[in-house]
C-alpha cells in the first residue's frame, strides 16, 4: 500500500503527516524549533535547524507508521510564507539566518515603496506593501549584509522561501522552485501574468538570477535523493503556502467559501475563483493554487498575532502553564468585564495594517483578574477575524454564510463559540483540524494520480462540531463598539 506524506513547515514548528487514500491519518510527528529575537521587531529562524527538524519529523512519522520511505507515493509541502533565506548553491549551506515573515525591520523600505509606486504596485502584484513581503526582505539583506551582497554578486548565493529551501534540500539541489501561491504574497509576482513583476524587480534592484522558477501547485518538481529521504527516491509533487493550503484542505474550492486558520497569526481566506480582485481596504489578493493550468484567486486578511497571544499569557505574563489553560481560566468568569485585549505585538493586521500600533489592554479596573485578561485575549482572536471577514464581504459582494475553522486555536470550543457570536454566522470545525498539511497532501496526491480529481476530494471533508450564534444583535453591536474604540487607541502607538 502507498501513502502520501505532507510536510507542514510552520512558524514555530514543523509537522510531518502520513495519510492513506481514505484520508485517514496514519502517523504524524511534530517539533518546535528555535525562535530568535535579536532586536526589537526582528524575528529570525535557523534554516539549517528547520531542515534538520523536518528530516527528523519525517523519520519519526515513518517509524510511527511502521513503513519505509519507499511506501510514500509523493510528498507535499506547505510552509510559513515569505520567510526569507539565502544559501550557497554549491554547498547548500545557509548564508544567514532566515528573516521571518513577522519581522518588521523592512518598514522603511515599505514606506519608500509606498511613496514611489504604492497603488500601482499593489494593483499589479495583488499584495499589500507591508514588512511581511519577501521582496523587501531581499532588498534589506542586499543593503545591510555584506556577505549576502558579495555572495550574490559572485553568483554563489540564491534566495528562497521555506518551500524553496526544503525542496532544494530534499532534491539534493536539483530543483530551485516555488509555486504561484507562495510567490503571490512576496510582492515579486505579477497577479495577472503569474510571472515575476519586472517593475518590482527594477524598483528594488533584485537580480532575476537569484530567484526560483515559478511552478504550479500540483505537479512533480523533483525526486527526493536517497540521502535526503532515507534511501528512497520519491516525487515531490505539491507546494502551497500555508494559508492557501489550509483553504484547499478545508474544501474551500468554490467561489464564496471561506476559512480561518487560528495559528501563530490568524488568516482568513475567501475563494474568488478565476476572478482576480485587486487589493484594497486592508485585504490582499493571493493566488490560492494553480492545478492543471487553472488558477484560483482569493481574498485574504491576516492578524499577525493570534495564537501567539496565548503563548504570551504562558511565557510572558506567566498566568497559565499550558496553552490549554487559557480556555479553562476564561471559563471561570461570565465575561471579560469590559476588558479588551489588542494583541498588536508587532502592529495591526487587516484591515488596518498599522505597523506602529502596539499591544494594549483596555478597561482594567480593581476587579479585573487574570481570568478576565485570559478571556479578553481569546476574544481578541475572534474580533480580528471579524474585522477581515466584513471587509471581504464588502469587496466581493458575497454574503458569507459560514466560516470553516482550523489550526490549533480551533480546538477551543469557547473561542469558536465567541467567533460565531461576534460574526453572526455559524462556524464549523472539521474532523481533521490540521487542514494546512492536508491541503498539501491533496495537491501532491492529485499530481501523481493518487486521487482522481479535485471534485473527488470533497467527500473527505466532515464537520466535527458546528457553532451557531447565540447572542442578540444588540449585544453583538455593543461588544464590537468596545473593540473598535480599543483599536482606535492602539493605532499609531509608536508615533504618539
Automatic annotation (TrEMBL):
Keyword Transferase: yes
Residue intervals of the Carbohydrate kinase FGGY C-terminal domain: 259-447
Record's protein name: Glycerol kinase
Regulation: Activated by phosphorylation and inhibited by fructose 1,6-bisphosphate (FBP).
Protein role: Key enzyme in the regulation of glycerol uptake and metabolism. Catalyzes the phosphorylation of glycerol to yield sn-glycerol 3-phosphate.
GO molecular function, one term: ATP binding
This protein's encoding gene: glpK
Pathway: Polyol metabolism; glycerol degradation via glycerol kinase pathway; sn-glycerol 3-phosphate from glycerol: step 1/1
GO CC annotations on file: cytosol
Residues reported to bind glycerol: 81-82, 242-243
Family, as annotated: Belongs to the FGGY kinase family.
Chain sites annotated for binding ADP: 11, 15, 264, 307, 408
Keywords per UniProt: ATP-binding, Glycerol metabolism, Kinase, Nucleotide-binding, Transferase
Domain Carbohydrate kinase FGGY N-terminal span(s) in chain numbering: 3-249
Reaction(s) this enzyme catalyzes, per UniProt: glycerol + ATP = sn-glycerol 3-phosphate + ADP + H(+)
EC number: 2.7.1.30
One Pfam match: FGGY_C
Residues binding sn-glycerol 3-phosphate: 11, 81-82, 242
Organism: Eubacterium aggregans
Amino acid at each position: 500500500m502507498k501513502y502520501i506524506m505532507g510536510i507542514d513547515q510552520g512558524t514555530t514548528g514543523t509537522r510531518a503527516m502520513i495519510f492513506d487514500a481514505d484520508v485517514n491519518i496514519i502517523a504524524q510527528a511534530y517539533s518546535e524549533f528555535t525562535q530568535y529575537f535579536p532586536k526589537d521587531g526582528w524575528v529570525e529562524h535557523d534554516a539549517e535547524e528547520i531542515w534538520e527538524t523536518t528530516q527528523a519529523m519525517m523519520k519519526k512519522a515513518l517509524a510511527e507508521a511502521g513503513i519505509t520511505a519507499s511506501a510514500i507515493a509523493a510528498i507535499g509541502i506547505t510552509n510559513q510564507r515569505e520567510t526569507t533565506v539565502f544559501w550557497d548553491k554549491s554547498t547548500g549551506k545557509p548564508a544567514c539566518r532566515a528573516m521571518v515573515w513577522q519581522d518588521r525591520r523592512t518598514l522603511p523600505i515599505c514606506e519608500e515603496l509606498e511613496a514611489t509606486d504604492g497603488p500601482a504596485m499593489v494593483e499589479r502584484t495583488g499584495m499589500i506593501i507591508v514588512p511581511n513581503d519577501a521582496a523587501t526582505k531581499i532588498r534589506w539583506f542586499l543593503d545591510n549584509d555584506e556577505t549576502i551582497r558579495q555572495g550574490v554578486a559572485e553568483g554563489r548565493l540564491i534566495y528562497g522561501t521555506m518551500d524553496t529551501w526544503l525542496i532544494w534540500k530534499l532534491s539534493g539541489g536539483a530543483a530551485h522552485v516555488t509555486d504561484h501561491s507562495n510567490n503571490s504574497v512576496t510582492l515579486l509576482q505579477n497577479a495577472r501574468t503569474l510571472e515575476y513583476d519586472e517593475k518590482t524587480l527594477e524598483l528594488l534592484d533584485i537580480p532575476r538570477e537569484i530567484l526560483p522558477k515559478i511552478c504550479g501547485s500540483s505537479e512533480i518538481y523533483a525526486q527526493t535523493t536517497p540521502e535526503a529521504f532515507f534511501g528512497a527516491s520519491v516525487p515531490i509533487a505539491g507546494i502551497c503556502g500555508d494559508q492557501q493550503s489550509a483553504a484547499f484542505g478545508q474544501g474551500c474550492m468554490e467561489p464564496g467559501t471561506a476559512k480561518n486558520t487560528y495559528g501563530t497569526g490568524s488568516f482568513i481566506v475567501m475563494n474568488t475563483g478565476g476572478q482576480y480582485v485587486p487589493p484594497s481596504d486592508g485585504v490582499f489578493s493571493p493566488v490560492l493554487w494553480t492545478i492543471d493550468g487553472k488558477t484560483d484567486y482569493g481574498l485574504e486578511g491576516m492578524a499577525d498575532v493570534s495564537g501567539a497571544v496565548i503563548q504570551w499569557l504562558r511565557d510572558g505574563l506567566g498566568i497559565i502553564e499550558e496553552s490549554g489553560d487559557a480556555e479553562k481560566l476564561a471559563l471561570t468568569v461570565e465575561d471579560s468585564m469590559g476588558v479588551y485585549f489588542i494583541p498588536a505585538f508587532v502592529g495591526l493586521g487587516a484591515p488596518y495594517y498599522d505597523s506602529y500600533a502596539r499591544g494594549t489592554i483596555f478597561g482594567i479596573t480593581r476587579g479585573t483578574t487574570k481570568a478576565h485578561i485570559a478571556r479578553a485575549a481569546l476574544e481578541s482572536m475572534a474580533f480580528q477575524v471579524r474585522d477581515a471577514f466584513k471587509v471581504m464581504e464588502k469587496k466581493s459582494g458575497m454574503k458569507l454564510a459560514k466560516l470553516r475553522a482550523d489550526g490549533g486555536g480551533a480546538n477551543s470550543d469557547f473561542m469558536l463559540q465567541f467567533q460565531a457570536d461576534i460574526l453572526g454566522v455559524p462556524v464549523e470545525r472539521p474532523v481533521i483540524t490540521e487542514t494546512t498539511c492536508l491541503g498539501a497532501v491533496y495537491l501532491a496526491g492529485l499530481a501523481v494520480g493518487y486521487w482522481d480529481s479535485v471534485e473527488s476530494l470533497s467527500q473527505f471533508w466532515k464537520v466535527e462540531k458546528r457553532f451557531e450564534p447565540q447572542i442578540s444583535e444588540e449585544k453583538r453591536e455593543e461588544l464590537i463598539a468596545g473593540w473598535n474604540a480599543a483599536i482606535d487607541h492602539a493605532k499609531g502607538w509608536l508615533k504618539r
